[in-house]
Specification:
Layout (H helix, E strand, L loop, with lengths): L23 H14 L1 E6 L9 E6 H76 L23 H4 L3 H44 L9 E4 L2 E4 L6 E4 L2 E4 L5 E3 L4 E8 L5 E8 L2 E11 L6 E2 L4 E5 L9 E8 L2 E3 L10
Antiparallel strand pairs: 1-2, 3-6, 4-5, 6-13, 7-12, 8-9, 8-11, 9-10, 10-12, 10-13, 13-14
């Protein structure tokens, strides 16, 4: 076994012996030793003449440790400040979301109340609809009507829906279903009201066709029914009423219609026939003047002729008849205006 002095040491290229390399630990220790022995003095000198000068002496290692600790402290303070700012923002966003959710809850309650109000108003309309139908002897509307493209439950994948609480989701679902039902009922009532409008339009056409006004002013000199003929003295059917007045007195149409005939006709002299639709026809005799011609449309209260004394007549008057479905009727049964 070789002694330490017998160990061969490597030689340099010049023939000298190479010194052994220092280990990392040795270098660190030597560096720390130098830092401990190297020191700095901090002097605090007062501004006035009096006062004691204060000195602080610290090694280089101590100063470096102090500065390092200060730097770490500053980094820690900055990091904590940034975290505090971030947390404050997050709390602010959370509070805003809470306020927004509360506002949405209030809005949702308002929507639910509005849906309930609309449902009550729709029920009133439905009851009024049913009363009208009873008065008009019409069948009640069918309830099977549906709305094309109705909403239904919300999409669970919708972003706004998924962010709500389970309780709010259920309330939203029920509210939308309420609106779907209201929409269905509105559609039913729309169809029902449309039917009523059609019916009333038809009824208006019928009313427009009824000869409800007197065609001329004057005095009724002969009623509808059996009477003694002024020419033969025999009893015979008088199919109209006679209204006496001066020649040229205006004669108006008692309802809307179309002129079927305007010209001379035997014992009636100048004669006028108007078709009012729905089987109603009026006839005018002994006229002095015709203001319309066959095929012309006339309106209620339009002047169509003038009273006269043409044909076989005992004096100036209007002979007026009303026929319904080919049967003569009493004209006075249709008059709504009074003498």
């Amino acid at each position: 076994m070789l002694r330490p002095d017998q160990v061969k040491r490597p030689k340099s290229e010049g023939g000298g012996t190479v010194a052994p390399k220092e280990s990392l630990t040795s270098r660190v220790r030597s560096r720390l030793a130098r830092l401990r022995h190297q020191s700095y003095t901090l002097m605090l000198v007062p501004s006035g003449r009096s006062g004691k000068i204060m000195q602080f002496r610290a090694s280089s290692l101590t100063l470096r440790l102090v500065f390092g600790a200060c730097a770490l402290g500053i980094v820690a303070v900055v990091s904590l400040s940034l975290d505090a700012i971030r947390l404050r923002r997050q709390f602010g966003n959370l509070r805003a979301l809470q306020e927004q959710n509360a506002a949405q809850g209030v809005a949702l309650d308002a929507v639910s109340e509005k849906a309930a109000f609309l449902d009550q108003e729709l029920l009133k309309i439905k009851r009024f609809d049913h009363r009208l139908r009873k008065v008009m002897n019409l069948d009640l509307p069918r309830e099977e009507a549906t709305i094309v493209g109705a909403g239904g439950a919300p999409d669970p994948d919708a972003s706004y829906y998924s962010q709500l609480s389970r309780e709010d989701q259920e309330e939203v679902r029920e509210t939308l279903m309420d609106f779907d039902e209201i929409a269905r009922q509105v559609n039913v009532e729309y169809k029902s009201l449309h039917d009523l409008e059609t019916y009333m339009s038809e009824q208006q056409s019928i009313l427009d066709a009824l000869p409800t006004i007197r065609p001329a002013t004057g005095w009724r000199t002969s009623r509808y029914g059996n009477r003694r003929s002024p020419f033969t003295g025999l009893r015979q059917m008088h199919r109209g009423v006679d209204i006496s007045n001066a020649v040229g007195t205006p004669i108006v149409s008692p309802a809307d219609g179309v002129v079927l005939f305007a010209g001379r006709k035997g014992e009636f002299g100048k004669f006028l026939v108007i078709d009012h639709g729905y089987g109603h026809v009026t006839r005018f005799g002994h006229l002095s003047k015709l203001n319309v011609e066959a095929g012309q449309r006339v309106k209620r209260r339009q002047v169509v002729a003038a009273l006269g004394n043409t044909g076989i007549s005992t004096g100036p008057h209007l002979h007026y008849e009303v026929w319904v479905n080919g049967q003569a009727q009493d004209p006075e049964a249709f008059f709504l205006d009074q003498e």
